[in-house]
């Protein structure tokens, strides 16, 4: 056990990708022999299994006689740094961002940490471009390739039998570009073609339930003038991970024309499942989404407010985060997206080949690798002079 103790403060009890990443980072660090204890905020409703490794980290007390390190996995402007400095010898931020620049309210706090962990090259470039002066280290996400694998039983979804199935997994927000996905699919595929689009999504807040999302989709379809279309199958209920893995293997291809990703965990999980990806060619996922395992969609960079003002916008914007001066993200080309979806549909052998390659490519992205990398950087930060 290490001569220092790490306290991990993060959204480990939250549902979704950020919660899963926070849990996996803390557990991976612990498996590397680091003395780790976990504190979670009030947000989140996922209860750890009794007797699990995560529960044991929750119950661990502060260690006496050891250097105390805080890894803070929340937004940097929310930390009370002066208070935490009295308790910890080093304070490290673990964060992620999706546009070309981080929000203004992250400063000056972010430059008062001892170091920052980010999961992709895209993130590091965004932080440095924004004026972050403290050391920024890349600690990639992992994926559980034993859980997400090609042999997983497909989720039983009515209306998909005998069809080429596009699957998509995302939160129903503007950054994920649900309108672009729907418009490309409806324009490219007719009702007589053996194809289906299965969308696993969720809203943000109790009002944004399945009925609300379905109404948004149907209203958009009506505005575009479509009547009969190829089927869109919506799944918006919370889904445990053991069922989510069957969503990926249901797909002949995974498609998400995102405008920006810090990592894109569903892309990792899809590739680990042996399912090729159709994705915008810009963002944090480009560390592992390659032409050999995916279909890359063309794009242009623009300020997010441009698409937010568009008549096509159908989901929550989060304008206060993403539409600040100087921020840009990718606007995928609809024509390119349509061509990539059609190419996947026509070339199932190519899809299977790319899927197999994707599986091989992401096998190195393990959480143990992430934990080992994080441990090395923690110890490097300990050796450096403390920031004031």
Q: What does this entry look like structurally?
A:
There is one protein chain. Helix 5 packs across helix 11. This protein has 388 residues and is of the alpha/beta class. It is built from 13 helices and 14 strands. Helix 1 links the parallel strand 1 (4-10) and strand 2. Helices cover 35% and strands 18% of the residues. The protein has a 6-stranded parallel beta sheet with strand order 2-1-3-4-5-6, with helices on both faces. The mean pLDDT is 95.
Per-chain topology:
Blueprint lengths: L3 E7 L5 H16 L3 E6 L12 H7 L7 E6 L8 H5 L4 E5 L20 E4 L2 H10 L5 E3 L25 E8 L6 H11 L6 E8 L7 H14 L8 E4 L5 H10 L2 E4 L8 H8 L4 E4 L13 E4 L1 E4 L1 H5 L10 H4 L6 E4 L1 H13 L1 H15 L4 H17 L5
Parallel strand pairs: 1-2, 1-3, 3-4, 4-5, 5-6, 7-8, 7-10, 8-9, 10-11, 11-12
Antiparallel strand pairs: 13-14
